[in-house]
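Changelog excerpt

This revision adds worked examples to the README so contributors can see how folded entries look when concatenated. The first example is reproduced verbatim below.
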Amino acid sequence: MSWRLTKTLIGAAAGVVALMAFLGVAELVAVAVGPGSAAAIAIGQNAIAHTPQSLKEFAISHFGEDDKNVLLAAIYTGLVLLAAAVGSVAALTRRAVAFISVCLLGAVATVSAVTQPTASPSYGLPSSAGSLAAICVLGLLLKATPATRGAHESTSTVPEGKCLSRRRFVFAGASLVGTTAALYAFGSQAMSTIYNAARSRAAVRLPKPSSPTPVVAGTGFDIAGLSPYITSNQDVYRVDTALVVPQLSTEGYSLNLHGMVEQPAVYSFDELAGMGLVERTITMVCVSNPVGGPYLGNARWTGVLLADLLRKARPHPGADQLLIQGKGRGRVA
């Protein structure tokens, strides 16, 4: 194997290991900040925000609920290829190329994180920490590799000192791969555990609605392959453009009704559940659903009528628009 090819491969490996350090440290720091601040998620969410609607509809129609997984796979693949290319160029020419590239990647991830609608300035910490880790790892590996010590390409055999350096590079690289992979796995698992409201949702016991939906005769047809009139919870379609799904617990939930109203109010989940609940059968369909498509569901919904809450708030005469915003801590679907 030529010495130039060896330099290229070693540089590519160094770039990929540095990327793993970037993602692993960023994932770990994101545990304290929030899953929406993780580097890859922030980049992916920014990509979705700037994707044309036609391309989004194409992804939904071809990949359905797997569209986000496909996007994340494409992002990770692209980052690996970019890291390998940058590492190779740095090994063959100047290390500064790699360090500048890491800083640019960190800047893109940081800006993508802090510009999300529900982000805070702290959302930039994971990508900044990941960039610092990647720079340290890249500097260590490029220093350990024989490709940066002026080897003679015309030499048919590698000097003994170079072999030792190469072994040192392999050992350091393998150690860093294991460490960064463990950091990423730990961070990912920690976020899946911390930012999970499944237990809170399972404990909910809603009172019976004061006005249940009457059972309509003739809505069920005994036809093979025909979906039932009421769609079961597990069969309700789910299509969204969010890589981070809000995880709302009943303990921290609040509904803040404010703006152009006489009586602003904040309601907790228990306060809403204690009001007169109603039940309604409502059909939902995705805007991208084709004729005869699967993205349609007919379900019974229980809750408080928004009209009742608005009457209590007493909107100003000039109020002509209702803006609904949601914010919750979440994890990748």
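The second example, added in the same revision:
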Amino acid sequence: MDQYFFGSVLKYITHYLLPGSPDENLEICWGLIQAGYRGERGGRFGNLRVAMYDKDGEFPRLKGKAGEIRHFGKALLYAFENLMDHESQLHRQIRLGLQYSTEIEMIVDELSGIYP
């Protein structure tokens, strides 16, 4: 589910929220995502391209390895919070979805030490 949600958020940011081309907008977003990774352990994307979540005729889905996607939510949340319009109900709902996704990641991390 995260692959579809994260892909949709990335497409929204790069195609609708920011004024430049998708590639230009992804460069801005990617800088914020990298800043959002600070202090995170585990896998992370080394690079992100529009083609990794936006294919013609397909629902947006972030393509990547499970380890890369696993800790992506917190970094994407950081980026979105820096780009969003805090007065927009849609933006607040997207932020809430990213917050819940990040909380679920934290719960899974905590339980992974309990259950083999």
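Reviewer comment on example two: Helices lie at 2-17, 22-36, 66-70, 72-83, 89-112. The chain has one domain: 2-112.
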